[in-house]
Task: inverse folding
């Protein structure tokens, strides 16, 4: 059997070692797409000091990846349709490694931004391609595979933040932020090699010019004869952006909100709980993701819970804040886990890349605007509590648009006779 034959990977060895190896590979790619990116915030004060960056320039360094990933996601979907998901992930990981390593040796701020843009482009290409491969490699386990990929992303975020400061800088030296860039960049190389060895070769999925992701999809169900429902990119993008808006808004405005209340001392605990609650919830959801994938009620529930948590956060004593932010952190990751599965579940044949790219573009765009809108409301009305208004809007979006997600007929895996 050819070790890189896609049919062997998805059918004959569905329960063999290669099937589990592919699941692990998807998880590992998720980790890698975030360690390089999230290794920057812990050393940001050092970068600002050594390069003499203003606060605006420093903010651009952290905001540029979000803009790049959002702006490039739609185009990445079109590219993936032509070159295939496997090759797209390979190119994306190479760009990620190159950008991470090349931004370290130069003292130029312009080159720092340039290579940050390069690695962000690599992330955009890879993370748009992974759902395409999830659909191809795990057609009956899309929810599980998407959840494991999301687990990897969250684990990468936690690993980068936890390891960069106390471990890498403790080992490399307190001011060695350039060396930390190199260290995280080098970790991408073995992942590229593993990807080359384990990922099944596949032919590129070529686009059909007469179709778009917003047009009716008329694939017929083999069981019911019903037409595949219309899937709109803006619908999936807005639903999946609900979790991102909750996450970025809370991370952005909890510190100044607590400072405005005169309780900045509780901010560290709140942020730790907000981010720390995500990984165990994500891992727990992995166990039931296959069952929940494509269902409407989880998104509606998260919307209701998120709005309730914001009301609780702003109306109860400060001692309750860790509880409310834990609920909000769990809510945001639930949308991330289940939202990642929507494009490969709902897209028509050959349209996963395009739908994923368009969805990610809308997702990142809304996530970028959400915290800005909260800050604008605070400035306009001088009410700190209004900074969290985007979370309420995200909750309403999840309730309304979550209830209107296309229904998905789940086809059980066929039972095989014992040999």
Result:
């Amino acid at each position: 059997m050819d070790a890189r034959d896609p049919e062997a990977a998805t059918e004959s060895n569905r329960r063999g070692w290669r099937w589990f190896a592919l699941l692990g590979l998807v998880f590992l790619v998720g980790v890698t797409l975030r360690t390089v990116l999230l290794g920057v915030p812990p050393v940001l004060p050092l970068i600002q000091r050594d390069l003499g960056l203003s606060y605006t320039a420093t903010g651009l360094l952290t905001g540029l990846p979000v803009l790049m990933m959002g702006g490039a996601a739609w185009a990445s979907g079109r590219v993936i349709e032509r070159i295939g998901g496997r090759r797209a992930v390979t190119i994306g990981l190479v760009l990620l490694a190159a950008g991470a390593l090349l931004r370290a040796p130069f003292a130029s701020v312009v080159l720092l931004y340039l290579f940050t843009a390069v690695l962000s482009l690599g992330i955009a290409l890879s993370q748009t391609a992974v759902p395409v491969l999830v659909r191809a490699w795990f057609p009956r386990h899309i929810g599980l595979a998407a959840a494991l990929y999301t687990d990897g992303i969250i684990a990468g975020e936690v690993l980068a933040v936890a390891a960069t400061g106390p471990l890498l800088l403790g080992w490399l030296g307190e001011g060695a932020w350039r060396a930390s860039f190199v260290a995280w960049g080098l970790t991408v190389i073995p992942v590229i090699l593993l990807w080359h060895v384990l990922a099944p070769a596949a032919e590129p999925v070529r686009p059909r010019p007469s179709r778009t992701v917003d047009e009716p999809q008329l694939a017929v169900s083999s069981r019911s004869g019903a037409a595949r429902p219309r899937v709109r990119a803006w619908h999936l993008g807005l639903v999946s952006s609900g979790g991102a808006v909750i996450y970025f808004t809370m991370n952005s405005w909890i510190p100044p909100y607590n400072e405005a209340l005169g309780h900045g001392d509780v901010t560290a605990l709140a942020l730790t709980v907000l981010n720390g609650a995500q990984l165990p919830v994500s891992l727990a959801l992995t166990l039931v993701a296959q069952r929940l994938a494509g269902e409407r009620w989880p998104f509606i529930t998260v919307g209701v819970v998120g709005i309730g948590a914001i009301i609780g956060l702003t109306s109860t004593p400060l001692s309750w804040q860790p509880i409310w932010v834990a609920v909000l952190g769990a809510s945001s990751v639930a949308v991330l886990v289940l939202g990642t599965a929507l494009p490969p579940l709902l897209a028509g044949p050959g349209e996963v890349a395009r739908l994923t790219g368009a969805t990610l573009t809308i997702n990142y765009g809304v996530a970028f605007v959400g915290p800005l809108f909260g800050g604008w409301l605070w400035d306009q009305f001088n009410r700190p509590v209004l900074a969290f208004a985007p979370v309420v809007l995200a909750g309403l979006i999840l309730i309304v648009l979550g209830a209107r997600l296309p229904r998905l007929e789940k086809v059980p895996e066929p039972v095989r006779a014992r040999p």
Observations:
- Residues 42 and 288 are 34 Å apart (CA to CA).
- The chain has two domains: 6-198, 233-402.
